[in-house]
Specification:
The complex is a heterodimer.
Chain A: H1 8-15, H2 21-44, H3 47-63, H4 74-96, H5 122-132, H6 136-147, H7 152-159, H8 163-183
Helix pairs in contact in A: 1-2, 2-3, 2-4, 3-4, 4-7, 5-8, 6-8
Chain B: H1 7-12, H2 24-34, H3 50-93, H4 95-104, H5 108-120, H6 125-133
Helix pairs in contact in B: 3-4
Chain lengths: 185, 134
């Protein structure tokens, strides 16, 4: 597939040329859609919502590609857009469901049992409930570190937070999740 | 990473249980690439001309030169005027030299005309005496 021939530096060059920008961006979509989808899906939980947010992420990246100066990696830039779009979507969904912005995201997990695109068991639902109790940014940190096994330095670039603060945030997230799982055993 | 993980999470594993429709990503990639809206792009590889590159510096230099010229003219004008005023004040203050100072600015031609006009106007006593003295 084209994925194996993806050369980021070459693609970035092509993104700067109006003649090749469309074809180059199609390669970006192909290369990053899966990674970004799972990052978004773990935040918004529902498949259809993740699909919408993924589309919004690529549209936003497409319309502001001239703003990408190339001093950060393309992946970092896209992760950042996806993270912001996910949080914006969750806040809009909270407003639509008359839930306070300050409340946690537990409401996202309520439909998980009946979701046709979820085939996990009770324990996995419980873990999702535990993760949903974390503040949005801490959820992002936990997901990137626990599921994607990203380096703290890379997470730091995406979220604009120091490595030390991220380590502390992840540590606290683990403690909260453990505590939630033990209390709801 | 391994040291960070808790025993409880190790037991659950890292599969969250989410799945996607068959061929979801292939379909998504095609749909997304086809649905990208038209965006007007500026050509990124246009090399600016030398004039465009140096224009801001030229304008800046011109502004500085203009200010410098104005300051120079103003300063010179000011000092010349003050010098002249001081000189006039000094000469006028010294009664013996006042006439000489006033006459120093008068050309020989003016003096001749002046003397002729005095000679022609003999009825004016004051001027006559001046002429006689000479």
């Amino acid at each position: 597939m084209a994925r194996s021939t993806y050369d980021e530096q070459q693609v970035i060059k092509q993104l700067r040329d109006p003649k090749t920008v469309h074809a180059a961006f199609a390669m970006v979509i192909e290369h990053y859609s899966s990674t970004l989808y799972w990052q978004i899906r773990r935040m918004v939980i529902d498949h259809d919502d993740a699909n919408d947010v993924l589309q919004n992420t690529f549209i936003k990246a497409w319309t502001s590609i001239e703003g990408f100066r190339g001093d950060a990696r393309l992946s970092t830039w896209l992760y950042k857009i996806a993270a912001n779009e996910s949080i914006t979507f969750i806040n809009k969904k909270k407003t639509a469901n008359h839930i306070s912005i300050d409340d946690d995201d537990s409401f996202l997990v309520n439909q998980l049992e009946s979701d046709e695109w979820f085939d996990g068991d009770e324990v996995q639902i419980k873990l999702q409930r535990a993760i949903a109790t974390l503040p949005d940014k801490q959820r992002l940190v936990f997901n990137m570190r626990y599921y994607d096994e990203m380096k703290y330095e890379d997470i730091s670039e995406v979220l604009g937070t120091s490595v030390g603060a991220l380590k502390a945030s992840y540590h606290h997230a683990l403690k909260k999740i453990e505590s939630f799982l033990q209390d709801n055993d | 990473m391994k040291q960070e993980e808790s025993e409880i999470l190790k037991g659950i594993g890292k599969n969250p249980g989410f799945k996607v429709p068959d061929n979801y990503f292939e379909d998504f990639n095609k749909r997304m690439a086809a649905a990208l809206p038209e965006v007007e792009r500026r050509p990124a590889n246009v090399v600016p001309s030398t004039w465009v590159k140096i224009r801001p510096y030229f304008y800046m230099a011109a502004t500085v030169a203009g200010i410098w010229c104005m300051l120079t003219v103003f300063t010179n004008l000011n000092s010349t005027t003050m010098n002249q005023i001081n000189e006039v004040a000094e000469q006028m203050g010294n009664g013996n030299n006042a006439d000489e100072f006033i006459m120093s600015g008068t050309s020989d031609y003016d003096l001749l005309n002046y003397e002729d006009s005095v000679a022609m106007d003999a009825e004016t006593p004051q001027l006559q005496s001046v002429t006689n003295n000479e």
